[in-house]
Specification:
With 365 residues, the chain is of the alpha+beta class. The chain has 2 domains: 170 residues, D-amino Acid Aminotransferase, Chain A, domain 1 (2-Layer Sandwich); 167 residues, D-amino Acid Aminotransferase, Chain A, domain 2 (Alpha-Beta Barrel), CATH 3.20.10.10. Strands 1, 2, 3, 4, 5, 6, 7, 8 and 18 form a 9-stranded mixed β-sheet that branches. Strand 10 and strand 11 form a beta hairpin. The longest helix has 16 residues. The two termini are 25 Å apart. Bound molecules: pyridoxal-5'-phosphate. This is Branched-chain-amino-acid aminotransferase. It is an enzyme of class 2 (transferase). It comes from Commensalibacter oyaizuii. It holds the Pfam family Aminotran_4. It catalyses: L-leucine + 2-oxoglutarate = 4-methyl-2-oxopentanoate + L-glutamate; L-isoleucine + 2-oxoglutarate = (S)-3-methyl-2-oxopentanoate + L-glutamate; L-valine + 2-oxoglutarate = 3-methyl-2-oxobutanoate + L-glutamate.
Length: 365
């Protein structure tokens, strides 16, 4: 089977794209996940032909049989990555091969046929080339890319689907950090958990998010922006903040993040920050951390800064923590210096404003 760069993707131009003035007005203040570009990419899979019928066409509704597996048993996975516009106009991707690899791992966990990594990367490059006019300037944000895959066989049996549909859509996104990231307030959820050992916590599947929404509602009810999940076995160890990984900065300048034990999503941002922090000479530990100890360490001053990280928001400082006993403030509710320094280092590489010693950045051309 041919894949990767030799895989041909047909292009059928949208006959009625948004006007230039409409597009420019969106690109000035895109928000997040509200507007979509003029096209979408589709690739189909079946057992006879393998991956086939790759095409880029006008963005719009797709037609599916109501019996397709994804509607009933949730066989679905997704990714999130961004295209960045450099100051010299070049268009850059950040570690797309890491997303391609994770997409394969997610597919395997959900008993789906993995999309070959080189085909994922080729599809992303070809699609971004088509939508290059949809990149916001770097003072505004990025083009957020959402690859996803669904089980598309019309069949109600509980078994892996023999047919899949891979799609890629794109949405211009404003950045949070342009205004200086505002620290969030987090709720420690004592009842709800995100992932159990042997479950799907490591896979980027929609079902994990569906299961987290009621916990997010609990956080909102307690006047918090986000929630922190504890482990499912003991309801004791900190795992993630909503859909982001979490880092703690201690008074000795060291950084700590929970280890990848199978219940935590292995973030590309998390991995990149571990590398960058080590290169800065910081001590970095991947260790379990009990929520009760976290509160004690905030009260004693041992905790200096806490932040969450992920592709969408990059780095999100945590200023306040709430649980059923009270509220605790970190770094006076302000973003800390190590948080800001790590964010700047990462963002500068992503936008091509700083050298890229790890070859993380790929140019779309
Ligand atoms: C996507 C995701 C992250 C962050 O991953 P990045 O690759 O850094 O964007 C963290 N936690 C969860 C649950 C996620 O789905």
């Amino acid at each position: 089977m041919n894949s990767g760069k030799n895989f041909s993707i047909t292009f059928e131009k949208n006959p009625s794209p948004l006007s230039e003035s409409q597009r420019k007005s969106i690109l000035q203040d895109p928000g997040f996940g509200k507007s979509f570009t003029d096209h979408m990419l589709l690739i189909e899979y079946n057992t006879e032909q393998g991956w086939h019928n790759a095409r880029i066409k006008a963005y719009g509704p797709i037609s599916l049989d109501p019996a397709v597996c994804v509607f009933h048993y949730g066989q679905e996975i997704f990714e999130g990555l961004k295209a960045y516009k450099a100051k010299d106009g070049r268009i850059l991707l950040f570690r797309p091969e890491a997303n391609a690899q994770r997409f394969v791992n997610s597919a395997k966990r959900m008993a789906m046929t993995p999309l070959p990594e080189d085909l994922f990367i080729h599809a992303v490059h070809e699609f971004v080339k088509v939508e290059k006019d949809w990149l916001p300037d770097q003072s505004v944000g990025t083009l957020y890319l959402r690859p996803f895959m669904i089980a598309s066989t019309p069949y109600l049996g509980v078994k892996p689907s023999p047919n899949y549909l891979f799609m890629l859509i794109a949405s211009p996104a404003g950045s949070y950090f342009s205004k200086g990231a505002k620290p969030v307030t987090v709720w420690i959820s004592e009842f709800y958990t995100r992932a159990a050992s042997g479950g799907t916590g490591e896979a980027k599947c929609g079902g994990n998010y569906a299961a987290s929404l009621v916990a997010q509602q609990e956080a909102t009810k307690n006047n918090c922006d986000q929630l922190v999940f504890l482990d499912a076995a003991e309801h004791k160890w900190i795992e993630e903040m909503g859909g982001m990984n979490i880092f703690f900065v201690f008074d000795d300048g060291s950084l700590m993040t929970p280890p990848l034990t199978g219940t935590i999503l292995p973030g590309v941002t998390r991995n990149s920050i571990l590398t960058l922090a080590k290169a800065k000479g910081l001590t970095v530990r991947e260790e379990r951390y009990a929520a009760s100890q976290w509160i004690k360490d905030i009260q004693s001053g041992k905790i200096r800064e806490v932040f969450a990280c992920g592709t969408a928001a990059v780095v999100s400082p945590i200023g306040f923590v709430k649980d059923k006993n009270g509220e605790y403030t970190i770094h006076n509710g302000q973003p800390g210096p190590i948080t800001q320094d790590i964010q700047k280092t990462l963002v500068d590489i992503q936008y091509g404003n700083a050298p890229d010693p790890y070859n993380w950045v790929q140019e779309v051309k």
